[in-house]
Sequence to fold (270 residues):
Amino acid sequence: MPELPDLEAIRTFFNARIVDIPIKSAQVRIPIVVRASGEEFFQTLAGNAFELLYRRGKFLVFPLASGHALVVNLMLSGRFRYVTPNERMAAKTCYVITLEDGHEVRYIDDRLMGKTYLVRHDEMQQVPQWAELGPDILDPELTREAFLQRIRRYTGQIKNVLLNQSFIAGIGNAYADEVLFAASIHPYRKRTKITPEELSRLYDAIHEVMAWASAIVAERLENELLPRDEIRYFLRVHQRGGQPCPNCGSPITQIGANQRITNFCRHCQR
Ligand SMILES: [Zn+2]
Fold:
């Protein structure tokens, strides 16, 4: 599942390539992921142009010169391709946006669980879950003080607190494990049992982990705009159950299954 470093890399990639290029046409091929009719999608996008993309939590926003925006949640398996028309069309290509410069932006989703909304930019609140999102973890206004103040309202296990998108937006299951490892905090500890010093360390760990991961993902991102699972080879504990901890060498613990795996080091994370 794409997380913040992946979305940041996609955002940067597109901002260098598709902004201000007139859109020639737009076609919905598999309607289920698009929350607009094919006609509306075409009418709104054709002749329009993208402005600078931004991200909020797990949403990638493609603003349009007309005042509309495409708001994309990739969910488990959504991905983009940026190709020329002669590239073979993947089976689960849900929509294609053709630019005047000859490139196509294609959205592919093998499990068809992603969602793309077409809304007016001043009506983002219509996008489900948008209004409930807390501040993005990379929002400059989320200072250390603001973070420490805000986290007081949340009393549960610290990993669940990090995953709660109304607390802060942008941390998913994989990076929650990485951030807690970097901060040496056990994922099942209650927030109420964690000292202010540790919470301050957690704030730093969030920024450090996102920065190094984003840099690595951005380097590996090519025209296949999806961070597949193997792109995560650099993670230190997530999906590393049984392997030696990079700090102390003791085996990494794994609890849970599928999308809800939690990995941590019992020795390093207290
Ligand atoms: Zn360890």
Observations:
- Residues 159 and 176 are 6 Å apart (CA to CA).
- The helical segments are 4-15, 38-45, 144-151, 158-163, 173-182, 196-220.
- The domain at 144-264 is CATH 1.10.8.50 (Helicase, Ruva Protein; domain 3).
- The chain is about 25% helix and 20% strand.
